[in-house]
Amino acid sequence: MFRRLPEPAAASVTISVDGKPIAARVGDSVAAALLAAGIVVCRTTPVGEAPRAPYCMMGVCFDCLVAIDGIGSRQACLVRVRDGMRVDTQHGKRRAGP
Amino acid sequence: MAPAREHDVAVIGGGLVGSAIAWGLARLGERVAVLDEGDVAFRASRGNFALVWVQSKGLGMAPYAAWTKRSSDGWAGFAALLRAETGLDVAFQRPGGLHLCLSDAELAARHGFLMRLHNQPDMVPYEHEMLERRALEALLPEIGPEVAGASFCPLDGHCNSLRLLRALHTGMQRHGATYLANHIVDRIAPEAGGFRLETGGGAVRAGKLVLAAGNGNARLAPMVGLTVPVRPQRGQIIATERVRPFLNHPITTIRQTDEGSVQIGDSVEEAGFDDAVGLGVVSAMAERAVRMLPLLGRLNVVRSWAALRVMTQDGFPIYDQSESCPGAFVATCHSGVTLAANHALVFAPMLRDIALPAELAPFSAQRFDVPAAA
């Protein structure tokens, strides 16, 4: 669905999404890396469990919430990827505890 | 000029108190009009914490403890009736509630307070107990290291108060009540057979009148020969994102809603008619909540707000009737959720008579008429 612009390639990093390795580039936001890898549904809503994808990409809409390194409901568009980062999509309500 | 609308009863105030009374009256066949303000009103209902709460109520007025327990006991039937009539589930649960103490000193003070409450003459008896830390951990394993213990009362519960207001409005309108928004009452004139109310939305006539306008009652009451000394008290609430159910018992200051949000509340400030949120108070509430349940520290806060609740000099409700204008009543209280079952199913039926029964006499505002000291 999404293609990268023909820019000089930045260095590659690998993150895991739901346990699977995904290639991303230094400077990507987590949301951009997910979309570039074809992962569109990053969560389902807490009550109706409707699918949600990154939307505004600028920190406003809160639709791109994912768990990053074990902390739930982080805004994927506001966090840059880091090599070895663990990302988990969220389904329904997150857990309050660990 | 359009002719005034005619009703058996006009209820002034469409919040939790007014709409509970209006629903109760409408289901008895009374032709009810509910006169409400608009969106910008200072609504005490916005500041509710959705607790249906018994423990700690009534020190200084035992009849208030009994009135509270009676409403709590009636709540399950009240919720079932609302559901049957409107299809709306107000999510009433009564798992028993906790009041957490963050030090041995707080725990001892709480114990003393409850002993004084329950040792009052004519205090209604009900089950309650003090829990040491170990017993509390069995109920609530998530407590933080500073928690010394808690008081527990099996009668305490909570509900979805947003849906409660909606269910009462839906229910009263199904029974034919007329809801009139933007009808701020400017003047009340007693007339033969009832009252004529001049409002921002035109004139309304009614045979009887119930003042349920929260802090607005202080202004309205003298128009019908009543005195209702109430003042606004600011309360602030924090709501977190929705998470899976983990908190099985509501706590005085923390509860998890049926849809998963955690609410933190119960601040009290004297701030006049100012409903702004203050960061100092909100952060103190959050800090105490995290000391009680450390896992709250990792949740995202999605909203915080403030509202003006209704407070009398002694903190207890006022139910009263006018001597100079028979047919004019007032109902005002701090706990519009807890007392909703009574307002709908006990108080509303009392209004069919011209005088309130003796059991409500302790709640008359005449209790504030103390002769000046010599």
The main β sheet of chain A shows up as: 5 strands, mixed
Q: What is the count of distinct domains of chain B?
A: 2
The CATH architecture term of chain A is Roll
N-C termini distance of chain A: 34 Å
Helical segment count of chain B: 8
Brief descriptors of the model:
heterodimer, A: 98 residues, Ubiquitin-like (UB roll), 7 strands, 7% helix, globular, B: 374 residues, alpha+beta, FAD/NAD(P)-binding domain, 2 domains, 4-stranded antiparallel beta sheet, 17 strands
Describe the model.
The complex is a heterodimer of chains A (98) and B (374). Chain A has 98 residues and is mostly beta strands. Chain A has one domain (12-88): Ubiquitin-like (UB roll) (Roll). Chain A has one helix spanning 30-36, and strands spanning 12-17, 20-25, 43-44, 51-52, 65-68, 71-75, 86-88. Chain A has a five-stranded mixed sheet with strand order 2-1-7-5-6, with helices on one face. In chain A, strands 3-4 form a two-stranded antiparallel ribbon. Chain A is globular, with a radius of gyration of 13 Å. The model of chain A has no long low-confidence stretch (mean pLDDT 94). With 374 residues, chain B is α+β, with helices and mostly antiparallel strands. Chain B has two domains: 5-48 and 162-229 and 315-366, 3-Layer(bba) Sandwich (FAD/NAD(P)-binding domain); 94-156 and 231-312, D-Amino Acid Oxidase, Chain A, domain 2 (2-Layer Sandwich). Chain B contains eight helices and 17 strands. Chain B has helices at residues 16-26, 62-86, 104-118, 133-139, 161-174, 217-220, 279-292, 340-350, and strands at residues 5-12, 32-35, 51-52, 97-101, 129-132, 149-153, 157-158, 178-180, 185-191, 194-199, 202-211, 230-242, 254-256, 261-264, 301-312, 318-321, 328-332. In chain B, strands 1, 2, 8, 9, 10, 11, 16 and 17 form an eight-stranded mixed sheet that branches. A four-stranded antiparallel sheet of chain B has the order 13-14-12-15. The longest helix of chain B is centred in the N-terminal third of the chain and has 25 residues, at 62-86. The radius of gyration of chain B is 21 Å and the shape is globular. The A-B interface holds A 46-47, 71-73, 92-98 and B 142, 241-244, 246, 259-260, 262, 295-296, 298-300.
